[in-house]
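Posting this for the archive.
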Amino acid sequence: MKGIDLKRNLLILNNAVLFLCTSIYLGTGWSLLLFSFPIEPQLTVDNYYLQFVSQVTLATQFFTYMTTLMIVLAIIMTIAEWKTGLRWFPIIVLVGIVVATGLTIVFILPLNDLMSKGITDPIQLKSILHEWIFLNQIRVALWTIQWLSMMVYFSYQENVASKAKIAGVEQ
């Protein structure tokens, strides 16, 4: 019985950490949308570097490790839920992670590199920033879908637990 409880508790921890990671992405993405992107018209070749490059560099380093962890956690969750209808929630998260990571590697990181090297042409800066913002809006949508999938999963689990508790009380 203790082995089953340990396995169950480890799966709960796995899923909770995955939910935490999707929440970090959600918060980061919506913070960009609400607070960083609106200042884009004020950015110039003289001030954009301070506003974006250091933060993006640190975020990229952190998210590289977090994304790898998320893939492992989502695979574990998918395996654990494979024989249930709940398997679709971690599959949605996993697909979202893979697509967002592909978007980042193929399209966003090259723009990050251009910005980190230093842009001196104001027209080039505006063009790169517009493309970077557009791609990040897509990525925030993917991160939001991942978070919603985890939220619905945990809401469903809570609903089932509540019904079981009520049924146990009534018996």
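Residues 122-170 form the longest helix (49 residues). The chain has four helices and no strands.
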